Amino acid sequence: MSYRPLKLLTTGRITMNTKPTICVYCGSSPGANAAYIAAAEALGKALAQRECRLIYGAGDLGLMGATARSTLAHGGEVIGVIPDVLMNIEGLTQNLTTLIRTETMHERKKVMFANADAFIVLPGGPGTLDEAIETLTWHQLGMHKKPLTFLNVEGYWDKLLVLFDHFVDQGFMKPAFKGYYTVADTPLSAIDKCLMK
Ligand code: AMP
């Protein structure tokens, strides 16, 4: 392995502001449609080409691994953040630029959040949803103004967007919440939307 794992000493920001750091939340599974893996690979490549640093959960499974391997293969920089307990379960993408080991899931999320300038959400399951919703609710509470974009591969997130409308209609979500995220159809437009905001 060519990287040296860092043991977590701080949950604050460790990255230099030399290039934008984009956190990708995505599934640890490949999903049922080959378009999801293809989108992850395209996003990984686009991040490298746009000189954005990727930060993600370090795992080598599913869309997570596909995104990271593609960024690395195209010469990009990747920071992986993983709790020790998940290392054997999710595996580790090889040759990460930086690996940060945490003791807990909460620390993992905190390190990814603190070091990200923006977030892109690829298709994924409950873990992905948890991360995206937490980031949006923190925005709602005024804790940050970092942009988040759903990469809506083949309409994967349509049902969540309809659920958000339902929340608003039923008086459980302020319409302003819908201003805390954008929706993109392609990896390049997702990066553009993140960086423009
Ligand atoms: P999933 O979308 O369920 O495949 O999970 C994607 C990533 O989210 C994986 O790296 C999981 O380890 C992580 N994850 C799973 N559950 C949670 C959770 N409750 N909070 C934050 N991340 C999670």
How would you characterize the overall build of this protein?
With 197 residues, the protein is an alpha/beta fold. The chain has one domain: Rossmann fold (3-Layer(aba) Sandwich), CATH 3.40.50. It is 41% helix and 18% strand. It contains seven helices and eight strands. The chain has helices at 34-49, 62-73, 87-90, 105-115, 126-140, 158-169, 187-196; strands at 5-7, 21-25, 53-56, 78-83, 98-102, 118-121, 148-151, 181-184. An eight-stranded parallel beta sheet has the order 1-5-4-3-2-6-7-8, sandwiched between helices. Helix 1 (34-49) packs parallel to helix 2. The chain is globular. The structure holds adenosine monophosphate (AMP). Residues 27-29, 57, 59, 64, 86, 90, 105, 109, 124-128, 130-131 line the site of adenosine monophosphate (AMP).
Strand content: 15-25%
Proper CATH architecture: 3-Layer(aba) Sandwich
Q: Terminal Cα separation, in Å?
A: 37 Å
Average pLDDT level: 93
The number of helical elements comes to 7
Q: According to CATH, what is the topology?
A: Rossmann fold
Helix content: 40-55%
What's the β-strand tally? 8
CATH first level: which class? Alpha Beta
Bound molecules: adenosine monophosphate
Enumerate the spans where pLDDT stays under 50 for 5 or more consecutive residues.
Answer: none
Radius of gyration equals 16 Å
Q: What sort of overall outline do the alpha carbons produce when their principal axes are compared?
A: globular
What strand order characterises the main sheet?
A: 1-5-4-3-2-6-7-8
Structural class: alpha/beta
Counting structural domains, the number is 1
